[in-house]
Fold:
Amino acid sequence: MKSILVTGASSGIGLCVAQGLRARGWRVFATARKAEDVARLNVEGLESFPLDLDDSSSIRAAVDETLRRTGGTLDALFNNGGYGQVGAVEDLPRAALRAQFETNLFGWLELTNLIMPAMRRQGHGRIVMNSSVLGYAAFPYRGAYNAVKFALEGLTDTLRHELHGTGIHVSLVEPGPIVSRFRENCVPHFHRHIPWQTSIHRSQYEAQMARLDKPGPAAPFTLPPEAVLAKVIHALENANPRPRYPVTVPSVAFWWLRRILPVRAMDWVLRKASGGGKR
Ligand SMILES: NC(=O)c1ccc[n+]([C@@H]2O[C@H](COP(=O)([O-])OP(=O)(O)OC[C@H]3O[C@@H](n4cnc5c(N)ncnc54)[C@H](OP(=O)(O)O)[C@@H]3O)[C@@H](O)[C@H]2O)c1
Structure:
């Protein structure tokens, strides 16, 4: 039975991947940061314990617990837990950017580096990073999230070089819009950090907030999290995992368009696609 550690398994993509892999016979360590989610996941029959990406001691304890349960091995890691900081670049306080990087990058790197010795010892491993179309296409009002996903892509490309020939493979999954709790989970971070009522961008924020309140998919081409699961399965189980897996039509389209179009034309496309930042 192959084993995998999943972060951010309380909802959305992480939960879907944890359940989907378990159904395929994987031993899944489905971690979450809140005690009630850990309890729920255990009741559902997944092996769950706490992992908060903002807390080094929590990351260390989760790695220790994983290796204790497996006897020191782990076949795969799905780096997934995180959130999106919305806001214009000129409205971003240092604390907002720092928090975005703490959760979505520094925690992922710390966890990966703690798992790596076990993978090197056993001579194989799969690491899957849940990036985004926003890891290579910059959208207005998504500067913090763009920055952290671009950084993740750079770090992962470097890691892939450094792991070449070790038997450890690292892949990026790059979803476009996916049904999850992502949108609603962005809201508290927006209110905590962005002084939107006094901002020059206030009318854009109001349009974005109205969109966040609407039920149902907020963007065209939205897919269920099973679309990501399918790519994660390929990255974990195929003999030749790909470095990148775009998921959804926008991810594939923007990947090719940015190779073909001049920068100014691509900027126009991205502004149009984001409703000029209203979406
Ligand atoms: N949905 C999309 O359209 C989309 C598109 C591209 C990429 N992604 C990426 O997909 C990943 C998962 O997001 P999702 O769409 O599934 O949204 P989601 O339903 O909001 O799930 C996010 C998960 O991350 C967890 N998380 C947040 N902060 C954490 C922390 N400090 N430590 C540990 N876990 C933490 C959340 O836990 P709590 O329940 O405790 O908050 C939740 O389990 C993210 O990396 C996101 O960037 C999503």
Observations:
- The CA atoms of residues 166 and 173 lie 21 Å apart.
